[in-house]
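Q: what sequence does this backbone want?
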């Protein structure tokens, strides 16, 4: 069995922007902009070891062989609705990526993830999937999303979030030890309602201004 991997991205710019996002007084507009900027930085890290292929090009001076990544083989899998905030930033870095959506909501009584939408590109077995969701809290949504995604047999899966709770990481890796997690921070714990502490509140509400 694969050893679970957690990559905490502690680059100063990532941590700086995350701190600004955590502040209660940060406006919806600022939160949205910061999330997009931070997501671009996360994209650099999660794609650090992506496979490349060689192509022949013409520089202004001569012909050479150089390398490209195949963006069309990358699929960003957005867990709706808050995953859209990370998706926007990552598409600035890899605009050729395909996009998949998984619609899940958390039952407020049981905290179990319930699926209401699922749409992915064809031929997932040829594609590298990067699942995006701002929060890995209880881990229920992440586990349900990757369970469903694995049915399509993608070439690889990675999970990217802003914040993770120890409980969520434990739950996720108990179910999917083969899927590495990339996050900007691992916070202290969950509260009784399944929110991350100290956290940054409800990422979806802050992103869309719905609270």
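A:
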């Amino acid at each position: 069995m694969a050893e679970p991997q957690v990559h905490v991205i502690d680059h100063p710019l990532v941590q700086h922007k995350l701190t600004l996002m955590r502040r209660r007084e940060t406006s919806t507009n600022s939160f949205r902009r910061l999330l997009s900027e931070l997501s671009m930085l996360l994209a650099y890290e999660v794609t650090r070891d992506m496979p490349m292929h060689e192509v022949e090009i013409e520089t202004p001076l001569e012909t050479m062989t150089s390398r490209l990544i195949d963006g069309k083989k990358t699929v960003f899998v957005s867990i709706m609705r808050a995953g859209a905030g990370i998706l926007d930033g990552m598409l600035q870095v890899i605009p050729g990526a395909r996009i998949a959506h998984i619609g899940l909501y958390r039952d407020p009584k049981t905290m179990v993830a319930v699926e209401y939408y699922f749409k992915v590109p064809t031929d997932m077995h040829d594609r590298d999937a990067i699942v995006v969701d701002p929060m890995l809290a209880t881990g229920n949504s992440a586990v349900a999303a990757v369970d469903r995604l694995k049915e399509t047999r993608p070439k690889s899966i990675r999970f990217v979030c802003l914040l993770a709770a120890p409980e969520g990481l434990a739950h996720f890796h108990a179910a999917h030890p083969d899927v590495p997690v990339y996050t900007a921070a691992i916070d202290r714990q969950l509260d009784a309602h399944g929110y991350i502490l100290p956290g940054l509140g409800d990422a979806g509400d802050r992103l869309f201004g719905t609270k």
